[in-house]
């Protein structure tokens, strides 16, 4: 019985740690960002192409997230990933193409790094639980080291994307700005269309309820007669 409980505790704590790790990773999730006036803080914090996700409109972001996973071809730190269309519009020179390719390769190689970084923390937690000798300070220090290593990698990746941005001409930077403006406008238009459809459904639902309420007394009168 005790062995069964211990096994259950180990599995539960390991699962909890895995969830924490996944929530903290900088995997290349590539959901569409919202416009600059909406959730700007989140966009700036998560807009490096790693773990980017926005609350709200979950279905819509789920759809566009899948689309962007296949189309993401460049990342603008603070604003998130963009499609191949932007790369084509930028008309990169050979030096810029080399910077872009290096950043993409580094990002691709980094996809499995968070899992490896947190593996030591998983193992340490499991050891402590199985032995029954818990050391919270050691656990916190291990987690701190994992986060620090992850942030160091993240900073290195961001530096590559910033180097590419710094190589852009003023005209290219304007092209990037217009790309995000257009995308934000499309997002806003979809948001307004969705709100309009919801309002129409609400009005139809209320109309049906109203008609039902008016019909009930008539049916009752007919039944009595």
Write the element-wise H/E pattern from the N-terminal end onward.
HHHEEHHHHH
Rounded average pLDDT: 75
From the N-terminal CA to the C-terminal CA, the straight-line distance is 71 Å
Classify the beta-strand content into a percent band.
under 5%
Bulk shape: flat
Sheet with most strands: 2 strands, antiparallel
In the sheet with the most strands, the strands line up as 1-2
Spans where pLDDT lies below 50 across 5 or more residues: 1-6, 16-47, 49-70
Count every helix, treating DSSP H or I runs of 4 or more residues as helices: 8
- Structurally, the number of domains stands at 1
Number of strands: 2
Helix content: over 70%
Any idea what the radius of gyration is? 26 Å
Regarding quaternary structure, what we see is single chain
Alpha-beta classification: mainly alpha
Characteristic key phrases:
2 strands, 8 helices, single chain, two-stranded antiparallel ribbon, disordered N terminus, mainly alpha, 225 residues
Helix and strand topology:
Blueprint: H1 2-24, H2 40-46, H3 58-71, E1 72-76, E2 80-83, H4 84-90, H5 94-109, H6 113-131, H7 136-166, H8 170-224
Antiparallel strand pairs: 1-2
Region (Disordered): 181-225
Signal peptide: 1-21
Biased composition (Basic and acidic residues): 181-213
Description of the molecule:
It contains eight helices and two strands. By secondary structure, the protein is mostly helical. It has one domain. A hairpin with a 3-residue loop joins β1 and β2 (80-83). α1 packs antiparallel against α6, α5 packs antiparallel against α7 and α6 runs antiparallel to α7 (136-166). The protein starts with a helix and ends with a helix. The model is unreliable at 1-6, 16-47 and 49-70 (pLDDT under 50).
